[in-house]
Amino acid sequence: MSTGAPLVAPLTWRLECHEELGSTSDHLLDRAAAGEAEGLAVLAHLQTAGRGRDGRSWRGEVGNLHISLLLRPGGPARLAPQWGLIAAVALHDALAPFVPGGVAFTLKWPNDLMLGGAKLAGMLCESSTDATGHIEWLVIGLGANLAQAPAVEGRATACLPGRPAPEVVAAPLLDRVAHWRLRYLREGFAPIRAAWEARGPAPDAALVLRGGLAGGYRGLSESGSLLIAAGGTVHAVMSGEVD
Length: 243
What we know:
Number of strands: 12
CATH topology of the largest domain: BirA Bifunctional Protein, domain 2
CATH class of the largest domain: Alpha Beta
Helix content: 10-25%
Strand content: 25-35%
Number of helices: 4
Order of helices and strands: EHEEEHEEEEHHEEEE
Distance between the termini: 49 Å
Structural class: alpha+beta
CATH superfamily of the largest domain: Bira Bifunctional Protein, Domain 2
CATH architecture of the largest domain: 2-Layer Sandwich
Largest sheet: 8 strands, mixed
């Protein structure tokens, strides 16, 4: 009996491992532009020119996770930011078994994972749009402090005490990205939203956005915007960064 769900093929990954790259995402962006099929993942043990939000650069040391993923999901370009939230949920799933019991491990909108209030991991989602206004490809770069926590000015950082190898984390990460990709393409954003909220801040937690807006956390909107209650109004924040 048909369930009515769209027919979407499961994703099979091809993992490339490199001893050193400038940026796994830059490497994959070139491959995407050249027509590489979706499902390619590129991991580097040493990353010398990683890129973050707002043009921040960083060096990824040996022992930490530096990996980028190529997807071609289609869909309107306006939905591309939702894939960053999908990747965040998947990375949380992959790292959770390595987190000590009793230590807070939460998602921070839009692209960070926090361990005990310090940054453990982050990601950057980049995309290209075709002539029809649809997503041509997505490159999702993910980094996690598995072995050491690099110093970041003005921000506390953390690493996993068990120091799992990058390849050990990459396997469940790819599995969870494939899982959430399939659910998203078959069921829409609702299950992603619920999963992100279950792993995110506590309801009504006090949040401050860079730029001044401060208020109580109210979850995510149906599109993935951050909802903050301030001054008697619930604001939907489509872009920005929580301090």
